[in-house]
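This section describes the prediction task in plain terms. A model, or a person checking by hand, is given the sequence of a single protein chain and must write out its three-dimensional structure as a string of tokens. No templates, partner chains or ligands are provided. The sample shown here is typical of the held-out split.
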Amino acid sequence: MSDFRSDEHDRSRKQGFMPAWSVLGIGTDIIECLRIAKMIEKHGEVFLTRVFTPDEIDYCSGRKAANQHYAGRWAAKEAVLKALGTGWAHGIQWTDVEVVNQAGGKPLISLTGKALEISRDQGIDEMMISISHCRHYATAYATAVCLTQEPA
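The expected answer:
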């Protein structure tokens, strides 16, 4: 996506326009890490595969504080659906929202299925995400944006 932005930025600047992001929706969530740990303990693989993608499970399970990472991704998924304005309605599945990490660790949101369809219908070009966690809590903030053109 960064290549798209830089290419679009250069092209727009040459045409007398600067790209700008318009916010279409925001969402936030906070969860106790212990709640996720208890769900994993009680329901195990059934819970994990219902809520998280295989790549998310690999990432979180490979971390020292796995429950904190799972909780962060849970909060991110909730925040994204709030930014979409849908909640869990309209046939969206937990795994339709995936947190993917760039090489440097920056989290990105990947949408599939019904979540992707709804985001396209709303004109969303990117879902930005910020995730934070500590021993007790995990939180996430999502911003749904679209690229617009403004005079330079």
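For orientation: The first strand starts at residue 17 and ends at 32.
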